[in-house]
Amino acid sequence: MKASIYRTEKDKERRIIWAAMRASLEASRFKYKRNGKKSKSHWTTFEHLLDFFGFALKLIGFYEKGVKNASDMKIEEPVFYFSNLPDAFDGFRILNMSDFHIDSLSNHEDNIIRKVAPLEYDVAFFTGDYRKNISGSFKNILGPMKKIAASINPPYGKWAILGNHDSYLMAEYEEDLGINLIVNETLELEKEGQKIYVTGTDDPYYYYSEQAVFALEKPLEGFKIAMVHTSELRDIAAQNGYNLYLCGHTHGGQICLPNGKAILTHQYEGNKFVSGIWNDNGMIGYTNRGCGVSGIPVRFNCPPEITLITLKKK
Ligand SMILES: [Fe+2]
Q1: Cα–ligand 1 centroid distance for 242 (angstroms)
Q2: What CATH code is carried by the domain that includes residue 140?
C-alpha cells in the first residue's frame, strides 16, 4: 500500500518555474484562460451586486434561511464502474471535497468534521478553493483547514489541487497542514502490486498554463484520474485516456431555481458540467457542488456536498 509522487530533478525545476509563473499571474489584473486573458474586475463588481442581493434577502426575511441551507451539507455517494480498473482497486473509496471557502461561514470546519466523521474512505482528494477571497492574506484559514486535515486520516493520504481563489504560497503550508499539493504532476497509488494514477493540475479558470496540459499529456498506461478545479480541461483529459475527471468550482450554481437549475454558473459552458455526473467522449466526469460558499454565504435549492466516490470494476 503506497501513495507517492515520483519527482525527478527536472520535475522539481518545473515546480519552481510554476511557482514563479503563478506568482506573476496572481499579481495580474487579468485571468489567464485557454482562449486568452480576461479582466478579473468582474469579480469585484459581482461582489458589490451580491452585497445588494444579500441586503434584499434580509429585507424579505430569506437571508437566515439561505445561511442555514449553506451549512446543511449532503453526503453524495456516486459509484462509478470501469472495465480497466485494476482488481485491487475494486471498491476503492475516495473522499472528495471541494470549494471549502472556509472563512465564508463561521465554525464551518466543525460542521465539516462532524459530517465526515462517520464516513469510511481510502484516500481524500480536495479540488481547490480554500479561502473566500481571490487575493490577500490567507492566514485566517490555516487554523480551520489544519483542524479539518487533522480529522481526516485515510491510509492513502490527503491530496489537494489549487483553485482560482487560492495562492501559490499555500504550498508553503503543505507539511504543516498534512495535505500534499499536486501541481501539474501525477500521484501513483499502489495496492497489492497494482497501480492507478491521479494527475492534478493547477487551476485553469484564472491560471491556465501549458504545464497543466503537459501533465495530462504525459504518457501513462493504466487507470487514470484527472483532478482539475474546473471542467475546462476535460477534452484534453479525455483525449489522453483519462477514465475519471474530478472537479468543482461551480458550487452547482449555489443559488438555483426550485427545479435545481443554476442561475449563475461561473463557467463558460453554462449549465453543462455544472454539477454531478457527466460524460465527455467516454470519460466519466464529476462536478462537486462544494462544501462551502463564496460571494454571499447563502444557498438555495443547491445543498453543499461532501462526496464519497466508490470505484467499481465492470
Ligand atoms: Fe469556489
Answers
A1: 24
A2: 3.60.21.10
